[in-house]
Amino acid sequence: MNAFDYSYPVRIHFGAGCADKALADEFANIDGKTVMIAYGGGSVKRTGLFDRIAKLLKDAGKTIVEFGGIMPNPTYAKVQEGAELARQNNVDFILAVGGGSVIDCCKIVSAQARLDKDIWDYEYKEGKHPTEFVPMGAVVTVSGTGAENNNGAVITNEELQEKAPLGGSFAQFAVLDPEITRTVPMPQVISGAFDTLSHCMETYMGAPRTVNVSDEMNEAVQRNVIRNMRALSANPDDMNARSELMWDSAMAENGILKLGKQTDFQAHMIEHQLGAYTDCNHGRGLAVIHPSLYRHLVDDATPQLARLAREVWDVKETDDRKAALAGIDALESFIKDMGLPTRFSQMGITDADEIFHKVADTCILTGGCARKLPREEIYQLLHEVA
């Protein structure tokens, strides 16, 4: 394992039914009076979750500012809208209520509201990162991204046609109540859970590719994700499966599995740019990309892919290369079983030759990948699953 330093600033409240007490306790300790509730398309209001949270805030003597309409693949324009709203209302605290898109957007709103420069230029042109933030917390409605566990965000800059990472604020606290995940449609729950599996695989496939404690813990989390995705797919009311998947999501992104690792995340970088040009669902895009990418890397990371096949997918093949390929086949079969796409055409992405060229030409090439893929090969692997 590589050397590392580790600290974890997010206070986690976890468990079915934990939300109301956890939020009441947290709201009592918020400095300042004005809280901005950020949310997505409005399901938090239709399900009554917004009213529950608003009552708890009012009981704590807080004034509420609403910031709604945060879209999947949140845009840079939406970030700027939220930052301006926070400034105009002297917001003291931001509460993100939603999944990864809402939480990611709020991380950057939190930073931009306190920064007198354009944060995209500040990070990408000046190479600097913000140090002052409007404090924030998160109520997770759909797990999978693990966004509540880190300060990274993925934002779509429509003007530049780039979907790229920015560094923002950590949440002071996060509420992980699996009961709340009932408020979102099952396809979204399954897509989010696959994102968790993707985070695990992207971490696992990074260097060093030798047996280590982080990878062995990772294997256990992957097995748990697969088992509970199957259980929840069979019975959407399985609260134990929802709970397990929610904690799997947190484990994939709280840094534990990444200790001593240089992570990969090449599949994510490809999907991010695909999302910039098509606004596709993140988890579904990853489901299409992963098997194709690993078939291209099978000769560059044979032992690691073979170990993944045996430890996670229970492949019995003794020859490493054959085992690696069998593991990739098992991953693809699982994707089909979960009702996720294995081709872009199943996502409505057709006649995409120009898009694939743009994705290949603009996606970030990650240093932790088993091999630095030439851009023409990325174009090829995208076409193979068109």
Describe the structure.
The chain folds into two domains: about 10-180, Rossmann fold (3-Layer(aba) Sandwich); about 185-385, Dehydroquinate synthase-like, alpha domain (Up-down Bundle), CATH 1.20.1090.10. The chain is about 50% helix and about 10% strand. It has 15 helices and eight strands. The strands form two sheets. It has a six-stranded parallel β-sheet with strand order 1-8-5-4-2-3, sandwiched between helices. It has a two-stranded antiparallel sheet with strand order 6-7. The longest helix has 22 residues, at about 215-235. The chain is globular, with a radius of gyration of 20 Å.
Quick recap of the structure?
The chain has 386 residues and is an alpha/beta fold. It contains 15 helices and eight strands. Strand 6 and strand 7 form a beta hairpin.
Q: Count all strands and give the number.
A: 8
The amount of helix comes to 40-55%
| Overall number of domains | 2
Main sheet overview: 6 strands, parallel
* Structural class determined from secondary elements: alpha/beta
Strand content: 5-15%
CATH H-level superfamily of the largest domain: Dehydroquinate synthase-like - alpha domain
CATH structural class of the largest domain: Mainly Alpha
- From the alpha carbons, calculate the radius of gyration and give it in angstroms: 20 Å
Task: Give me the CATH architecture of the largest domain, please.
Answer: Up-down Bundle
Strands side by side in the biggest sheet: 1-8-5-4-2-3
CATH topology of the largest domain: Dehydroquinate synthase-like, alpha domain
User: Which stretches are poorly predicted, pLDDT < 50 over at least 5 residues?
Assistant: none
